[in-house]
Design goal:
TIM Barrel, nine-stranded mixed beta sheet, globular, alpha/beta, Rossmann fold, 17 helices, Immunoglobulin-like, seven-stranded parallel beta sheet, about 20% strand
């Protein structure tokens, strides 16, 4: 099964986008009214010296458009100078058109007068006019790499109906195109819509796909588990591929007020490498510098931590974040990332249609819980070395995987149930874990024909929860299964509320019991169907673990590893330790580059199993030692 790795077109200046969001330390968001050419040159030079080739820049709306039909000549001239500096340094920028929200505050042009940003015809026309005028003046400059319509527009304009948002985006993009902009364009919304979060804010990537040239997730996660935190941006990139466009990690980073210098480096390293392995092909960190000199200016006066997201400090000295960006960029150039694809996989992580679609009379928390379960499952699959492809049931589930994971799947469409049955009949292994959801509205599995499907007789009571009473769920295996021996036990965390902590009481009919819980109840069963298997876990193990703190690595990875062995999943290189994540890129000349990414805060030593590997310099690899949260890339011959 292929995995998304679309790229923006290569050109003469750069092979991929790697850079930062940019405000000068002179002025911050008001840099265009306080522009200092010499300071900007020094700020950009530091970035270029560390291998960065791109900035994302911002037209602060009230500065560039002081009246509804007036373009500020001073602001445009200063931006032209900004572009010239980029060209002189061999850099480019992605201008952001409608900047009314920034770093914890919204700023309106005085003339907006409360009009709706998406649906007021006159105001939408004015936004398109701004795009057309700026494109006429700037689109021909070689330093312009692309365009963004906005900065986190849902925080500025709020939510709206999807048709309204998509129409607004089309009209503003038409303004840019009418002005001569030919570069790639995207929305700048953060990719926080229903397909990525389960919450419908009107910015639907599917609907916007015909208008945009790339999707741009913004990732600022907060989690109670380190692995989930490290994989959050990568999983967002996987989900953003729903548009079928290149994925650029448009914003990510951390304030130095929230994290130590050492931990900032670890976080950047993990986000960069894992988002690459999650399908991102461009990166723009937040942001270029600190703003200690702007403490009395909004938004920094009331959000002081926003002063310290820079990859350099206020004096221009690099932080660990900039060093990680430099090392990452150098590595991607060494492996010629632009000539690579993500390795195909035999494992599919299935996103149910109910998770990314607002069906009538369904509950939003089913979608958000579904996303949480999928995110945790994604981490467990990576711990098992499976590198799953994220597959949308809405788009149809292909038949080119050997293992299909449907974690804590409360709801599937009738068509999807028919499809996964066909896949099992054709020889695949389909794993499904039960979930009744985390609320009491139509609580229970929306599964047609549970008994016939899984070869069991269930004992559900209407409207009731068959509660898991223990804080840990133990599965004891009755037979050997995929490397787990009869008598072995898996111990799994139990989290979530009273609705979620329920199991599916069943007795086998034609299914065989693989494992039982501590009370002796069937907990893992499989049924032969055609040439393949349907495997049922009777507890929502992924959804329950998704809210549990500091759980990884927990034993779901062992279950997934066993499923993979039984399904015949091909893993050319593996590592015994689940704290080392493994994935690979394939160069067009046949070489394969293997990433080994540690999730341990202590040094780890291991020997890769499978294909013979060397260092990038061709020397024999042998035993590998990774520093805390370290990354090593090895290669196999063509």
């Amino acid at each position: 099964m292929e995995r998304s790795f679309a790229r923006l077109e290569k050109d003469s200046l750069t092979d991929f986008w790697i850079g930062v969001n940019f405000w000068s330390k002179v002025g911050g968001p008001r840099m265009w009214s306080e522009y200092d050419h010499d300071v900007v040159v020094k700020e950009l030079q530091v970035l270029r010296d560390h291998g960065l080739n791109l900035t994302r820049s911002f037209f602060f709306w009230s500065d560039f458009m002081p009246e509804p039909d007036v373009l500020s000549e001073q602001a445009v001239a200063r931006f032209e100078d900004f572009l010239d500096v980029h060209s002189q340094l061999g850099m480019r920028t992605v201008p952001t058109l409608l900047v009314g929200h920034m770093s914890g505050e919204n700023w309106d042009p005085a003339w907006r007068a409360g009009r709706d940003l998406y649906s007021d015809v006159w105001l939408v026309d004015r936004q398109a006019w701004l795009g057309e005028q700026l494109a006429r003046r700037l689109a021909g400059h070689p330093a312009v790499a692309g365009w963004l319509l906005s900065n986190e527009m849902p925080l500025y304009g709020g939510t709206a109906a999807a048709q309204t948002v998509s129409s607004w985006a089309r009209l503003v993009v038409r303004g840019l195109r009418a002005g001569g902009a030919t570069q790639p364009v995207s929305v700048g919304d953060g990719a926080w819509g229903i397909e990525s979060t389960g919450v419908d804010n009107g910015f639907r990537l599917r609907d916007l796909a015909a208008t945009i040239d790339f999707a741009g997730p913004h990732s600022y996660p907060a989690d109670s588990d380190r692995l989930r935190q490290h994989l959050s941006a990568a999983f967002s990139c996987e989900l953003a591929a729903v548009a079928g466009k290149p994925v650029v990690l448009e914003e990510f980073g951390a304030s130095s007020d929230f994290v130590s210098d050492e931990q900032l480096g670890h976080y950047y390293r993990q986000v960069l490498h894992m988002s690459l392995l999650g399908g991102a092909t461009g990166w723009m960190a937040w942001n270029n510098t600190d703003y200690d000199g702007l403490a009395d200016q909004p938004p920094y006066s009331h959000h002081p931590f926003e002063m310290h997201f820079g990859v350099t400090d206020h004096e221009g000295a690099p932080k660990e974040s900039l060093r990680e960006l430099a090392a990452f960029g150098a590595l991607l150039r060494e492996v010629e990332m632009w000539h690579c694809t993500r390795a195909a996989t035999d494992t599919a992580l299935v996103v149910p249609t109910h998770v990314d679609t607002a069906f009538p009379f369904t509950h939003e928390s089913d979608r958000t819980l579904g996303i949480a379960a999928l995110r945790h499952s994604y981490g467990a699959a990576r711990e098992a070395g499976l590198a799953p492809a994220v597959v949308r049931a809405t788009d149809g589930i292909g038949d080119d995987a050997r293992l299909y994971l449907l974690p804590s799947a409360k709801q599937l469409t009738a068509q999807a149930w028919r499809r996964v049955t066909e896949l099992a009949e054709g020889g695949a292994t389909v794993y499904v874990s039960y979930s009744a959801g985390d609320h009491d509205v139509q609580r229970g599995p929306w599964w047609p024909g549970v008994n016939e499907l899984f070869g069991v007789r269930h004992g559900l009571r209407y409207g009731m929860v068959d509660r898991i009473e223990d804080d840990r769920l133990t599965l004891e295996f009755e037979r050997d299964f995929g490397g787990i021996a009869a008598g072995d036990r898996l111990t799994l965390p139990v989290g979530g509320n009273a609705h979620l902590r329920g199991f599916l009481p069943v007795e086998p009919v034609t299914a065989e019991v693989l494992a039982r819980d501590a009370a002796g109840r069937p907990a893992l069963l499989r049924r032969r169907i055609g040439d393949g298997w349907l495997v049922l876990c009777t507890a929502p193990i992924e959804a329950m673990a998704s809210s549990a703190p500091a759980v990884n690595p927990e034993d779901t990875w062992r279950l997934y590893d066993a499923l993979a062995r039984e399904a015949g999943v091909r893993r050319p290189v593996t590592v015994a330790d689940p704290r080392v994540l493994v994935d690979s890129l394939v160069h067009r000349d046949g070489r394969r580059f293997y990433w080994f990414v540690s999730q341990s805060d202590q040094p780890l030593t291991f020997t890769p199993r499978g294909a013979a590997l060397t260092g990038l310099d061709g020397t024999e690899a042998g035993e590998v030692t990774l520093p805390p949260f370290g990354v090593r890339v090895l290669r196999s011959a063509a």
